[in-house]
Amino acid sequence: MTFDEKLSNYASLLVHVGVNLQKGQRLMVRAPITAAPLVRKVVEEAYKKGSPFVDVHWDDEVLQKLRFEHAPTGSFEENAKWRFDASMEGVDRGDALLTIRAQDPDLLKGQNPEDVSTAVRSTQTLFKPFSKHITAHSISWCLVAYPVETWAQKVFPNESADKATELLWDAIFATTRADQEGAVELWKEHQKDLATRSKFLNDKHYNAVHFKNAHTDLTLGLPDGHIWHGGGAVNKAGKAFIPNMPTEEVFTLPDMNRVDGVVRSSKPLSYNGNLIDNFELTFEAGKVVKYTAEQGEDTLKNLLESDDGAKRLGEVALVPHSSPVSSSNILFYHTLFDENAASHIALGQAYSFTVKDGDGLDSAEFAKLGANSSLVHVDFMIGSADTDVDGLFEDGSREPLMRAGEWVDKL
Asked: What is the pLDDT of residue 76?
């Protein structure tokens, strides 16, 4: 396949599998201007599918950086409310949402972390009602990536900008299966495998899961009524979609009050244009009580102080070490990919659909189910080739789920 054919295949997957656009349904697209070649193909595919209107909201990371370099002190609470209003109108109409990200992992390196934190918190606060619709799967949505030179050269530092970008495109096409004929059918089979694994875990009714490796010894309680999901989702209209492409995980929520032990990151975390690396968190009764980081400790501090829920967990996900993303032996410096190379957990908001009767509840009602609420939801990787995972039952007995990073039961 030529590059253009792969790009067209990628666009087709995003429309037909990612958001699973329906005839007569509008599509919202959020994308950086650098992703225009892909966006144009997505728009063409959406109209061919029968969409009456595709609404594209453009961004530019250079403008984002210029703000932190030159905007006046005290101005970082300012925001564009029209974006929120447009997003909520889309929810009311039942639009589908496609978000394309293309960003330099070091974009905001050296910028004032307090200013970055203030701006991020302002946006998160403004979009909180919309984010609740996303976590509840009120509409179909999909998050994907597009390479930029700065990101590509971070991933492939010994290559020229053009070669690094070519290699990153190859990796994106491979991990999303966009480089293969019959990619739609391949995704359907992949989703069946993840659904089978999710059913297996749901039938177990574990009380907790335990992660153990050279640097991690962490027990996460699971609330009554927790629900494991694998990759795909179903919106309020009953239509299936894929929130993230690629995806290799099965996930649920931990009990926000029953997380204890020490966990160390197994891959760097790129958070709002800053890297956090080799960081360690200590949990007691569900809450982070101690943290360290070899790189980006100030950024980690600001993340944890986003709000009360940012020090608690909202997700636990199991990913085999042999996943296609892990097997690529590429560190992407992008959570969308790196989280699919390793088991991971997330600070912050829990997805309402991961616990029985979780939809439509306020924060207090949600908390009674053991579910966390927060402005943030930030995944970071903890799995590795030496990670063992056990499922724990209420009577204290346990059984192995993963050994050396791989599933014990192949199903």
From this structure: 96
In this prediction, residue 347 has a pLDDT band, given cuts at 50, 70 and 90, of very high
Token pair listed for 181: 């004929």
CA distance 83 to 64: 15
* Distance of alpha carbon 119 from alpha carbon 105, whole angstroms: 17
Q: What is the pTM of this model?
A: 0.85
In this structure, the chain runs to a length of 411
pLDDT-derived band at 135, boundaries 50, 70, 90? confident
For Cα atoms 93, 99, 104, give the angle at the middle one, nearest 5 degrees: 155
Alpha carbon distance 332, 156 (integer Å): 9
Long-range contacts formed by 33-36: CB under 8 A, 24+ apart: 33/58, 33/59, 33/60, 34/60, 34/61, 34/102, 34/146, 34/148, 35/100, 35/102, 35/146
> Using an 8 Å Cβ cutoff, are 172 and 100 in contact?
no
The residue-averaged pLDDT of 51-55 equals 98
Instruction: State the DSSP code for 17.
Output: I
**pLDDT for the residue 274:** 87
Using CA atoms, how far residue 295 sits from 73, 272, 278, 280, 379, in Å, is 26, 14, 7, 11, 17
Q: What are the CA-CA distances from residue 339 to residues 67, 262, 335, 406 (Å)?
A: 29, 19, 5, 15
**What's the rounded mean pLDDT across residues 167-176?**
97
DSSP state of 352: G
DSSP string, 247-279: ---EEE---TT-EEEEEE-SS-EEETTEEEEEE
Q: What is the three-class DSSP state of 86?
A: helix
- Tell me whether strands 274-284 and 269-271 are parallel, antiparallel or unpaired: antiparallel
Give the amino acid at 202: N
What pLDDT score does 362 carry? 87
145 phi, psi to nearest 5 deg: -125, 160
Q: Tell me the C-alpha distance between 50 and 400, whole Å.
A: 48
Q: What mean pLDDT comes out for the span 302-308?
A: 95
Task: List 210's β-bridge partners, or say none.
Answer: 219, 390
DSSP assignment letter at 72: P
The beta-carbon contacts of 359-362 under 8 Å, at least 24 apart in sequence, are 359/136, 360/136
Cβ-based neighbour number of residue 163 at 10 Å: 13
Cα dihedral sign, 88-11-7-275 = positive
Of 21-35, 80-94, 123-137, 162-176, the range with the lowest mean pLDDT is: 123-137
144 three-state secondary structure? strand
